[in-house]
Amino acid sequence: ADGAGKSGLTALAYPMMANSAADAAMAVALANTLFFAAASGESKGKVALYLLITIAPFAVIAPLIGPALDRVQHGRRVALAGSFVARTALAVVMIFNYDGVNGYPPWVLYPCALGMMVLSKSFSVLRSAMTPRVLPPSIDLVRVNSRLTMFGLLGGTIVGGGIAAGVEYVFGLLHMPGALYVIVIVTAAGAVSS
Fold first, then answer.
1. Phi, psi of 74 (to 5 degrees)
2. pLDDT tens-digit map of 44-63
3. Contact 187, 173 (CB under 8 A)
4. pTM summary value
5. CA–CA distance from 107 to each of 70, 94, 104, 114 (Å)?
6. CB 8 within 8 A of CB 133
7. Cα–chain-centroid distance for residue 186?
């Protein structure tokens, strides 16, 4: 609508949905390992690592990566695809190190979770830098950003998160990390659509 197909906004909406779906699936995948385990207060070390994973991308790493990614003038689509490819690789590493009884080893879980969050933040910075370039002439930047957010929430977070939760439940019966398989599929599709 409003010239979004001609300007390239529609093409940016698909990676946005894939990013939101990957974030939702990652939250589902880590729900029983990081989030609820740290909330139960088993140890101060786990709580500290949980806080480090949650806060570090936004407090320390994002201000360093953000300006560097903003300077990328050419190859932003390749950088978007690269963020998806790297998340696919991290999900595969987590799948191969999953133990159906004990979960993930800490030396795999924490760096991979941190990497996923940093790459998601990198995608957001790149998307924000690309949005003005695909702005249709008939609508303003605020409406474009709200449309992208709506597509991300509806198509990515709600639908993608629901699918990831269902797959996680079914694969959980087989002691397999189902949401990580969803991440692999979604991030591969996001890389192609980028």
1. -115, 145
2. 666 666 666 666 666 666 67
3. no
4. 0.82
5. 31, 10, 8, 11
6. yes
7. 10
